[in-house]
């Protein structure tokens, strides 16, 4: 992958260019030392002079107002364009901030007219930035101050008084803090005065540039020591480049977080988010003082010391799916290589390519005006859908549908090009939707809530909320989530990483009147995880933790029998993975891993695991057991045992547990066959397979066994639900209150009751354990009746 640069002959300044920025993917603005404001339209190759600064003014930085949503009638200098829906308007991309050498910053509209000037600093303003929601402005100057302003230019606070000039600053992704450089150090300064700032020495020489990205939450910095470095949000070093010949004078993340650009003397480097370099472009135009990515992450503009403006298009970006390779050979051409037939084909596009994705047998191509859907079996006749005036920069595919997003809005399409739905998100924020915060299966969409990053919302394909729309149980911020692709709707699983790199898996149930508690359906799988991925063909889950590759052959085991978890795990240890590897693809038994150097490594798990999962998915457990006869591996017996149990193939499950010498499970399965009540049988089987506790409750009530349902919640410590059931069955109130008091005495260190319902019940109920035990013996009948919940 590389950047193909062109330098329009008419588009240049006299003197160096520090300020450059995209209003839209086609319109580029620049300001140089000649004081002229130029607008260049790349689609029509038109250059316009729209304004000129005074001879005493020199532009040092500019930043376009981000696209975001605001209410109609909001006050301030911000202008909006009415969207005509929902009483809201879309603002942004029609106004930019301009920092100058005389201590002022200006509001400038897209026609070049200066609408307002604000006296901000003593001396030059070196950097200025809108917050991502457009509600605040941050400025940094050579006086060492960082100041926060309202969007209309009213001073809100003097955030920082530094002893050195502030050469660069950026807002954090959630707009709660400011990242800025101070000498050799980087500082993350929270806006709240009672929060602690994070300061660390970043380079051996003065830090000139820094940049943080909202998608991957990573920080890059460049310095006079001729190095660039990558940091996480806590200031931990992830990557250090070699020392180049010249200082780093500019850098910028691509909006999608996949790549970043680093400018130096006569060079621009295109780098992967892991730090390694894709390509180097060399010019004879002096230092690169300004770089800016277009909103679709496909174009990079650079301002040079000679006054020339370069526009680079990303080409030679490749994608692989099975035996196909897709390479963007030009901005309007894709080369398709079929390694199975050893044939090549070309797809010529009418407009410039913005984004492409391949998976599940389909190639999705987005251009500036339309979307094209190619079937990988036949590339000749794509399905088309219109994208005019819509800038989508994210594609997520599933088996039957795919979704598009511009970072705030989500639209769902079928592979025939038919529009299906739009998700109604609550208060979406700019760039809050990206590859790590949204996932899709053929029947469900999971989205991290932009207003509460600890929560996940679930929607069906038609855009309707599922599971009450939100999961709010996790304690920490969710950084990455993914849905599995193979389970049924009522058994769908979500895997996610939190900010402490702990990997969790959750079983999403959508049947029944009540949803089971988060504690029951959420399990931690692993810690210190750097990357994870579901298998596209079956339910396997792979992750990299502590430099080791771990594959859970059947993650459902964590809900069914956690004691068998380690027996259904396959591990690969290799020194070749290096530092910070990531999983690129997991298809069948093949896993592709990318090293921090950019090199790809192919790993494979034994094929009999895949064959076994295919047989079990087809309810052919007996044939899977025959396969095991030729393999001396307990892990495959454990895989058959838990999978057959989940599929209610009790004969295959019992045979597999017998091979594992698991006497307890064998005895229980034999007991289960002796249960005469169909409802009690279903309830205990539901509990055994780790499905919804509320579903088991319904089976117990249907079988006229209310005490079984009450004892189920008591054993699960669902105290509120247990006492609520006594309103229908008051004869068991003493049972519930008695077990609650025993719980507080034995496990709560004798703490006092705090639940009002129990406090009220304790005034009217006498606890007599002889009477309670008599009720249990009478109504539970057998000792084994509740074996699964004990």
TrEMBL record:
Which positions fall inside the IFT80/172/WDR35 TPR domain? 637-783
Chain positions of WD repeats: 118-149
Annotated organism of origin: Adineta ricciae
Looking up PROSITE patterns in the UniProt record yields:
WD_REPEATS_2, WD_REPEATS_REGION
The entry's cellular-component GO terms read: cilium; intraciliary transport particle B
One example of a Gene Ontology biological process annotation: cilium assembly
Q: Where in the cell is it found?
A: Cell projection, Cilium
- Which residues does the UniProt record annotate as the domain IFT80 second beta-propeller? 316-608
Q: What are the entry keywords?
A: Cell projection, Cilium, WD repeat
What is the protein name stated in its UniProt record?
Answer: Intraflagellar transport protein 80-like protein
């Amino acid at each position: 992958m590389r950047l193909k640069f062109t330098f329009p002959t008419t588009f240049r300044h006299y003197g160096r260019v520090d300020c450059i920025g995209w209003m839209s993917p086609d319109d580029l603005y620049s300001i140089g030392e000649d004081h002229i404001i130029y607008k260049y339209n790349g689609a029509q190759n038109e250059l316009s002079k729209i304004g000129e600064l005074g001879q005493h003014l020199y532009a040092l930085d500019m930043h376009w107002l981000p696209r975001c949503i605001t209410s109609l009638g909001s006050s301030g200098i911000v202008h909006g364009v009415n969207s005509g829906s929902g009483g809201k308007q879309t603002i942004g991309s029609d106004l930019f901030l301009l920092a100058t050498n005389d201590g002022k910053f200006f509001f400038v509209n897209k026609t070049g007219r200066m609408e307002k000037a604000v006296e901000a600093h003593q001396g030059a303003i070196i950097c200025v930035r809108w917050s991502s929601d457009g509600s605040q402005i941050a400025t940094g100057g050579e006086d060492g101050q960082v100041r926060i302003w309202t969007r209309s230019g009213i001073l809100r606070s003097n955030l920082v008084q530094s002893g050195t000039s502030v050469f660069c600053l950026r807002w954090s992704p959630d707009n709660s803090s400011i990242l800025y450089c101070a000498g050799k150090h980087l500082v993350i300064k929270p806006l709240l005065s009672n929060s602690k700032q994070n300061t660390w020495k970043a380079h051996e020489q003065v830090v000139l540039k820094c940049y943080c990205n909202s998608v991957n939450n990573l920080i890059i910095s460049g310095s006079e020591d001729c190095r660039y470095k990558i940091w996480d949000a806590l200031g931990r070093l992830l990557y250090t480049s070699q020392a180049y010949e010249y200082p780093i004078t500019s850098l910028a993340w691509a909006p999608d977080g996949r790549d970043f650009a680093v400018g130096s003397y006569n060079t621009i480097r295109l780098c992967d988010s892991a730090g390694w370099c894709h390509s180097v472009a060399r010019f004879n135009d002096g230092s690169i003082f300004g770089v800016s990515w277009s909103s679709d992450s496909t174009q990079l503009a650079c301002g040079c010391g000679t006054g020339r403006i370069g526009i680079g298009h990303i080409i030679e970006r490749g994608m692989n799916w099975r035996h196909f390779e897709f390479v963007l050979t030009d901005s309007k051409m894709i080369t398709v290589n079929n390694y199975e037939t050893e044939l090549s084909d070309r797809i010529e596009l009418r407009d410039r390519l913005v984004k492409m994705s391949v998976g599940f047998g389909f190639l999705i191509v987005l251009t500036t005006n339309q979307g094209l859907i190619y079937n990988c079996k036949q590339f000749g006749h794509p399905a088309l859908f219109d994208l005019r005036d819509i800038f989508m920069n994210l594609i997520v595919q599933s088996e039957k549908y795919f979704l598009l997003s511009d970072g705030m809005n989500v639209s769902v399409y079928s592979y025939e090009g038919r529009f299906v739905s739009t998700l109604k998100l609550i208060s979406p924020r700019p760039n809050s939707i990206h590859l790590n915060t949204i996932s899709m299966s053929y029947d469900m969409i999971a989205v991290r809530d932009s207003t509460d990053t600890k929560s996940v919302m679930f929607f069906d394909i038609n855009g309707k909320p599922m599971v009450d729309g939100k999961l709010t149980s996790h304690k920490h911020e969710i950084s990455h989530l993914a849905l599995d692709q193979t389970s049924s709707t009522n058994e769908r699983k979500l895997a996610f990483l939190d900010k402490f790199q702990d990997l969790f898996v959750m079983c999403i149930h959508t049947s029944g009147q009540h949803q089971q508690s988060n504690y029951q359906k959420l399990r931690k799988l692993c810690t210190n995880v750097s990357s994870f991925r579901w298998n596209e063909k079956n339910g396997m889950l792979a992750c990299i933790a502590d430099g080791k590759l771990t594959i859970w052959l059947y993650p459902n085991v964590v809900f069914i029998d956690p004691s068998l978890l380690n027996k259904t795990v396959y591990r690969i240890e290799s020194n070749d993975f290096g530092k910070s590897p990531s999983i690129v693809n997991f298809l069948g038994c093949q896993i592709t891993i990318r090293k921090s150097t950019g090199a790809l490594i192919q790993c494979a798990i034994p094929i009999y695991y895949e064959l076994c999962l295919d047989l079990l998915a087809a309810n052919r457990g007996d044939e899977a057991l025959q396969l095991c006869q030729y393999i001396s591996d307990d892990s495959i017996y454990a895989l058959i045992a838990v999978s057959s149990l989940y599929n209610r193939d009790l004969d295959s499950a019992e045979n597999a547990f017998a091979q594992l010498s698991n006497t307890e499970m064998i005895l229980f399965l034999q007991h289960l066959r002796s249960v005469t009540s169909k409802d009690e049988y279903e309830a205990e089987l539901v509990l055994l397979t780790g499905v919804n506790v509320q579903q088991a409750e319904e089976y117990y009530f249907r079988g006229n066994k209310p005490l079984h349902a009450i004892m189920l919640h008591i054993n699960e410590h669902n105290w509120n639900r247990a006492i609520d059931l006594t309103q229908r069955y008051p004869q068991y109130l003493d049972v519930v209150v008695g077990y609650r008091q025993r719980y507080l005495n034995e496990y709560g260190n004798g703490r006092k009751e705090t639940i009002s319902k129990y406090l009220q019940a304790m005034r009217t109920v006498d606890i007599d354990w002889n009477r309670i035990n008599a009720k249990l013996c009478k109504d539970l009948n057998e000792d084994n009746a509740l074996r699964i919940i004990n």
